[in-house]
Design goal:
There is one protein chain. It is built from four helices and no strands. By secondary structure, it is an all-alpha fold.
Length: 75
C-alpha cells in the first residue's frame, strides 16, 4: 500500500501566506492576516521574511507609488 505525504495544515497556511505576501501590497497583506487572525508564530521572523531587505524609506516610496497609481485609476 502506498502512503501519501500530505502537508500539515500549518504548512499549507504558510505556503498560502508566502503567495499572498508576494502578490499583495504590505498593507493589504497585513489586513488579511489580521482579519483571519493568523497572527500566531514568531513575529520577528515573519517580519524579516516579509520586509527583507526593505527599509522604512523604500517601503514609504512603494506606498507612495501605490497610492499615486490608485488615485490615477480612481480620480
Amino acid at each position: 500500500m502506498m502512503k501519501i505525504n500530505r502537508p500539515s495544515e500549518k504548512q499549507v497556511i504558510h505556503q498560502a501566506l508566502d503567495i499572498l505576501s508576494s502578490n499583495l501590497d504590505p498593507s493589504s497583506f497585513a489586513r488579511f492576516v489580521a482579519v483571519c487572525q493568523l497572527g500566531e508564530g514568531d513575529y520577528l521572523k515573519t517580519k524579516e521574511q516579509l520586509f527583507n531587505p526593505e527599509t522604512v524609506d523604500s517601503l514609504y516610496e512603494k506606498i507612495q507609488a501605490f497610492e499615486k497609481a490608485k488615485n490615477e485609476l480612481n480620480p
